[in-house]
Amino acid sequence: MRLHPMLALVLLLASAASAAEGPAATTTTLYKSTGPDGRTIYSDRPQPQAQISKTLTFKNLPGSPLSAETLAYVEQLRKSADARASAPPPRDTVLFFANWCGYCRQARAYLAARNIGYRGIDIDTAEGKLAYAQLGGNNGVPQLYVNGQGVTGFTADAYDAFFKSRK
């Protein structure tokens, strides 16, 4: 498959920005549209009066990676008898967090500012690690679940989109 030169440039720039930003990269959406004149348009925004033929979304929400010790313990829990009886995804709003995680503090502030009720689970407790392991934690926090659907990391835009898609 050969990429259009402009698409290749946009992808290259997006990946370079992602690499430069490290874990602080965010979701990027690229739109391929056909304009009224028949020309192909690549943009990060839908073009007015153009027909979208393809949408590509790149996600890399910023979050805090778990320590090697915590990851090893979570993996041990996953293999244990308790974790084999894995819990179903929560049917309410649940936020896995750690007190030392800045992105977790931002996620909690976001939920509080919008009066979104949630059950917080601290992954630095034994019960929190077990719950995180049972749900197949994604090696980072914050991790938000709403009615069984989850997102790892935090940006306000990503959470806005996540909650909007739940309505």
Calculate the mean pLDDT score and round it: 75
- What do we call the CATH topology of the largest domain? Glutaredoxin
Give the overall form.
elongated
SSE order, one letter for each helix or strand: HEEEEHHEHEHEEEH
Low-confidence stretches: 5-26
Query: How many domain units?
Result: 2
Structural class: alpha+beta
Gap between N and C termini, in Å?
A: 37 Å
CATH superfamily of the largest domain: Glutaredoxin
Walk across the major sheet and give the strand order: 6-5-8-9
- Strand-residue proportion: 15-25%
Radius of gyration: 19 Å
State the helical fraction. Answer: 25-40%
- Biggest sheet record: 4 strands, mixed
Annotation field: number of helices: 6
CATH class of the largest domain: Alpha Beta
CATH architecture of the largest domain: 3-Layer(aba) Sandwich
Number of strands: 9
